[in-house]
Amino acid sequence: MRRREFLQSTASGWGALALHQQDAWAELREESDLSIVNAAEHAWVVDNPRFPMNARYSNCPNSRPQRNYSRQHLLAEMKVHDVDKVVISQVCYYGTDNSYTIHCVRSDPDRFAGIGLLVGHRLHRPGDPLNPMRLESLMEAGLAGLRLSPIYDPETTWLNDPVSYPLWKKAQELGAVFNIFLKPHQLGQVADMARRFPEVKVVIDHFAMIDIGRPDEEGIDLILALQPLNNVYVRTSLHNPSKQGLPFRDMWPYLRRIYDVFGPRRMIYANFYELLIIKDLIPFFNAEDKAWILGKTARDAYSLSATEKR
Predict the structure, then answer these.
(1) 306 found inside a domain
(2) Total-model pTM
(3) Are 268 and 297 in contact (CB under 8 A)?
(4) CA angle 141-142-148, nearest 5°?
(5) Whole-angstrom distance, CA of residue 281 vs CA of residue 284
(6) Could you list the residue range(s) of the whole structural domain that residue 289 is in?
(7) How many domains does the structure of the chain reveal?
(8) What CATH number does residue 87 fall under?
């Protein structure tokens, strides 16, 4: 089912509870300065000489998009979905060349924040002594932090290897955010680093790609074990672990467990097509919960400035 068809088909099936929640959210949004932050989109342009996709820097050199997903496209989607700000996660096509993400942030600083790529699979070595300086340069250029992806190195431990300590120390000094894309068995590495560097805010991407067909102790329980670490947040991305189509109902019980354990102030919404799911379909979020999940938590985690609602 296409996204627009989903939006139309669900409009008549929310029921009284969902409609009440929708009205409460609209009232809360109108009476306050709340704004919606989509905390994870990519951005790229194809065949643009100013922002070339050079395989030398890419960590997915054999992949190349066929169409643009540009800054202008994101702005158009933001208008359609009433999203006020987007956090752009540097796409693998560009790898360590973060120029286009920086361009987006600098062109529309009130609409975009950015997370760069720096170390890991096919990028700079985790122990490269220049990494702390590189992080500082990226943040001076306007980015909020990095995406670290140990998921591409499932048999190698580098996230919490001591060679990574200088990068995390610099991140703590600068107030950087680290988005972590990983598998469940790697969550212990996150726990170790989050304890060692408690001022580095860590966002778990894509529910750590749990396999919901496996026992809970191999998946969701490992995420819930991070709850005592106050600098760890969880993104509400439902689509990757789900084995269904929109609205990914098989993931709702797992979302509920994250909500019950972490609370809305440590949950971050992402992806345009999941906005309606979080805002109007999930039955256990009240209006105040949504205010945090859809914007306020991301503003805290990424230290985002106020945005004029469009």
Answers:
(1) no
(2) 0.91
(3) yes
(4) 95
(5) 9
(6) 3-301
(7) 1
(8) 3.20.20.140
The confidence band for 18, taking pLDDT boundaries of 50, 70 and 90, is low
d(CA 81, CA 257): 27
Residue 309 lies in a domain: no
Tens digit of pLDDT for each residue in 258-310?
999 999 999 999 999 899 999 999 999 999 999 999 999 999 999 997 655 55
Give Cα separations from 282 to 40, 240, 252, 274, 305 (angstroms). Answer: 20, 18, 8, 11, 28
Q: Averaged over 58-82, what is the pLDDT?
A: 96
* pLDDT at residue 307, rounded to an integer: 53
Residue 310 lies in a domain: no
Position 107 scores a pLDDT of 98
Cα→Cα distances 230→1, 159, 199, Å: 38, 19, 9
Q: What is the DSSP string of the chain?
A: --HHHHHHHHTT-SHHHHHHHHHHHHHHHHHS----EEEEE--B-SS-TTS---TTT-SSTT---SS-B-HHHHHHHHHHHT--EEEEEPPTTTTT--HHHHHHHHH-TTTEEEEE--BSTTSB-TT-TTHHHHHHHHHHTT--EEEE-GGG-TT---TTSGGGHHHHHHHHHHT-EEEE---GGGHHHHHHHHHH-TTSEEEE-GGGG--TTS-GGGTHHHHHTTTT-TTEEEE---TTT-SS-TT-GGGHHHHHHHHHHH-GGGEE---GGGHHIIIII-TT--HHHHHIIIIIHHHHHTTPPP----
Backbone angles phi, psi at 145, to 5 degrees: 165, -150
179 in any annotated domain: yes
Query: In Å, how far are 34, 41, 98, 101, 144 from 114, measured between CA atoms?
Result: 21, 10, 9, 6, 6
CA distance 164 to 171: 11
Tokens 């120029």 -> residue = 99
Question: Higher-confidence residue: 55 or 7?
Answer: 55
